[in-house]
Write a structure and sequence with these properties.
By secondary structure, this protein is of the alpha+beta class. The protein is built from 11 helices and 7 strands. It has a 7-stranded antiparallel beta sheet. The longest helix is centred in the last third of the chain and has 15 residues. The radius of gyration is 19 Å and the shape is globular. The two termini are about 30 Å apart.
């Protein structure tokens, strides 16, 4: 059974802009950086290569065993479903909104600039010993399809457990400049949602936090505007605040 609000492989496939069925991928015919141990073996991070047209991992560095305890082969064999299944449930419920924001920014960027974008966000991942490791995930799309969809993604994950966690996931987007440095161009926070809110109320709250009006939210969720207004009233009542701005701020504080 799918966890409440957790993201699925099919949903990510659509968010990335794909509408057709998954493509077959031949890893040996795909170029990707060498992730051999002498280059990437590290006590603080691991790397991976992911193909979005097939939704398959093409390579995972051996250092993932040091960080999470898993053999790289389990990700290659079980794929993205396994990766999604070991994400902390609270963080998993925010992944859909995070990837929506990522691909909204991606597709609003000129095609010739998309491969220069670097997307970073933090989340908690369950290790083989059932402990949770706080990870900073940074990635860029190394190659695109002819029509500009993301194709091959290079992923670098760093263990930041020692830096603490305040229940807020922060997404940042950097653009590689002509001087060879990454410049921050977008930043967004995803706080933990109040568990007393229904699934639909959480969706409305998240969209309102992104700045959408009631009409825009209604159009996005294919609901009438009166229904959205009703959800907003319930959110305000459940959070014990006087308006949506206060409700959003209260959720962020917690």
């Amino acid at each position: 059974m799918k966890k409440l609000n957790s993201v699925s492989v099919a949903e990510l496939f659509k968010l990335a802009g794909y509408t057709d069925k998954l493509q077959k991928c031949n890893p040996s015919a795909t170029f990707f950086p060498d992730l051999s141990p002498h280059q990437t073996e590290s006590c603080t991070g691991y790397q991976g290569i992911f193909n979005w047209s097939s939704m398959q991992y093409l390579n995972i560095s051996n250092s993932i065993k040091t960080i999470l305890g898993y053999e790289p082969e389990i990700f290659l064999k079980k794929g993205l479903n396994f990766s999604l299944g070991i994400i902390h449930p609270v963080d998993s419920r925010r992944l859909s909104s995070i990837h929506q924001a990522i691909f909204d920014y991606y597709y609003n960027t000129p095609q010739n600039q998309r491969s220069k974008l670097r997307f970073s966000y933090n989340l908690r991942v369950k290790a083989k010993d059932y402990s949770y490791v706080h990870i900073l995930r940074q990635s860029n799309f190394m190659s695109l399809t002819e029509d500009g969809k993301p194709l091959v993604e290079y992923i670098n994950c760093t263990d930041i457990t020692g830096f603490g966690f305040n229940n807020v996931i922060c997404l940042t987007v950097h653009l590689l400049s002509s001087s060879g440095t990454f410049v921050l161009c977008h930043e967004m926070e995803f706080p933990e949602m109040d568990n007393n809110l229904s699934k639909r109320e959480k969706e409305v709250l998240e969209l309102a936090r992104q700045g959408l009006t009631s009409k825009q939210i209604a159009d996005k969720l294919y609901l009438c505007i009166e229904t959205i207004k009703s959800h907003r009233k319930h959110i305000i009542a459940k959070t014990g605040t006087g308006n949506m701005t206060a409700a959003i701020n209260k959720i962020i504080r917690h």
